[in-house]
Amino acid sequence: MRVRLRSLLLAEKFSAALRLATILSHGTAKKVRADGVSQFTFSTEAGDTIVFPLRGHIVAVDYPESVRDWAATDLDRLVDTEPVEVEAPLALHEALRGIAPGIDEVVVATDFDREGELIGVEALRAIRAVRPDVPARRARFSAMTPSEVLRAFEGLCDVDWALAEAAATRERIDLAWGAVLTRFLTLACGSEVLLSVGRVQTPTLALVREREQEREGFAPRPFWDVLADIGDPPFVARAAGGPFWDPSGAEAATARAGLGADALVVRLEAYEEREAPPSPMNTTRFLAEASRRGLGTARAMAVAQDLYVRGAISYPRTDNTVYPPSLPIADILLRLRDSSYREHVDRIQSLPEVRPTRGPVSTTDHPPIHPTAAPPRLREPAATVYDIVVRRFLATLLPPATYRALAAGFRIGDADFVAHARGLVESGWRSVIPDERSTPPLPPLQVGDVLALRGLRTEAARTRPPPFHTQGSLIQAMERMGLGTKSTRHEIVALLYRREYIEGRAIRTTGAGRALVDALVPHAPDLTSPGMTRTLEGRMSAIAAGDVPMASVLRDSRDELHGLLAALRENEAVIARWIRDAARLHRDFGPCDACGRGRLVRRRTRTGWSFLGCTEYPRCRRRLRIGRGGVRLPWTLGTEAPLAAP
DNA sequence: GCAAGGTC
Fold first, then answer.
1. Helix, strand, or coil (residue A408)
2. Which of the residues A63, A271, A308, A315 is marked catalytic?
3. A318 and A359: one domain?
4. How far apart are CA A357 and CA A281, in angstroms?
């Protein structure tokens, strides 16, 4: 009797397992539930296969019980403490242990990246705890398409232990630096709230701080424009040579123009402008758009995840901005015909050729975010998230928008004026994502026409500082600086809000956030900048390449952390006072004006809103809202006059 | 009570 090979395939997540099983079984795979975990099984001539969905990492590193007591644990000891590995979720480990005795080989088929390699190794270790000798191989596919997956399974390679070790090193370094420095600052400041520090969160906080400082240091520069209102209905022309950085320039232009009573058309220049459609959308772009439309980025990701699980959109965590050739664009369009986007689908289907745009980043993790179905009526905010995804997808398939632009030159008295207008000729992709800034058209003009001059005026303005970060712009900045990943950036931003390091939709640092960055910068410039991430990336590459062992990287990192800890301790008193004062100012709004005994302090509702409450609560129930810039406002609108902040 | 990284 021929022995049938029993294989266990490890997938990174449920959807990946389903897809792998479908492709490899040519649609014959069955979903089964064993040990409380869904998995897929199928049989071929070669043997029987189980495709097992993991759920990302199934092993977490944390410190052992012996160093959990903050007060009793010396931080230098913590630096050198080996973390323990925690099985989570436990159910997956139990399921793997249950399967292990009945299999002949393991194929690691997790995402083809560094974390994916470690996720696969975590599961493989769990299996080998039961079956030490089970052979394992690795499938490397750059897309979950039939051709790619089948190719990968024809040429299985070895598990890349060095790559997994690089990821494991990152886990340990992040934990050590985060835990040691968080404990140090929290204890040094005697703070009841956590003062957290991390390789990604602290440089991100510094980005907010830097933008704030740019604004603080910004000297607005006044300038003047001379405007002429011409014709009926009137349009606006600007004096040539402007804007004027000096009022006398504007005065001179006004004086020269003031000699005339009408405007003579002296020059007409018409030209065509093309505006290329946007590129396919990755996570960062999606979050920027969601943020622009008033959605918080963490919320937007949660909604996108839900739409993905429900089959309406593709996987929302991706860096890719180039559709893979395998993307079934025609099929997707067919599915979107049964939706309110039908008119746009019709336009695309009537094009002689559909050529999607390409963005700058081509990765193999997942395709750019695109719709996969037209779900029935969605409620907010799902409707907005789906709308962002569909419109962007459709826009990438439509031709450029073309405009007829017109520059008209006028002679008024002895001065030259210019008016511009731009009108849509072919809407192209702009039919699905309309341009919010449109310019009013100019009336039909010919050189030599004389139009009535209705008035001259001078407009004074000032140069503006760069805007505060929004969640969207902050996440884009993080990506540019190499901070965090597509899956974590929005979480880091949410964490900074939760820690009360930042506040507002136009993001500013709080007193505590500001003090924390300012206190750390002189002692740990690498920790408050992307420097630490860059160094770590370099070291991980060296580990993955086999140039250096994990142990030596950990040793170097621990030495550096001991050194930083020593430097911080030397300045502990100064740093502590600095942050403590700032944090207290941030929370404490002075004596309570109602009872006179307590103080008004910043508190949070369960839903995250800040308000001022009396420390004597519930004896004193005084409460106030906090307005822009920390101004106290009455709890009920209009019943009391606002009080000035102390 | 610490981080950042997967995914739900």
1. strand
2. A315
3. yes
4. 10
Give the closest residue to B6 (Cα–C1′).
A56
A10 and A146 housed in the same domain? yes
Residue A430's CATH number: 2.70.20.10
- Calculate the angstrom distance between C1' of B4 and CA of A365: 19
* A534 located within any domain: yes
Please tell me which residue lies nearest to nucleotide B1, judged from CA to C1': A194
Residue A386 is among the residues annotated as catalytic for this protein? no
Block residue for tokens 């540019």 = A480
Q: Check whether residue A358 and residue A447 sit in a common domain.
A: no
Q: Could you state, in chain order, the average pLDDT of each consecutive group of 10 residues for chain A (646 residues)?
A: 85 95 96 92 94 98 97 97 96 96 97 96 98 97 85 95 98 98 96 94 98 96 96 92 93 89 93 96 97 96 94 94 92 94 96 95 89 92 97 98 93 94 91 85 88 94 97 98 97 97 96 94 95 97 97 98 97 92 70 75 60 75 70 52 38
Structure tokens at A556: 């170097």
What span, in angstroms and rounded, lies between the C-alpha atoms of A63 and A598?
40
Burial of A455 (0-12, 13-18, 19+ CB in 10 A): exposed
Asked if residue A584 belongs to a domain, the reply is no
Domain co-membership, A420 together with A499: no
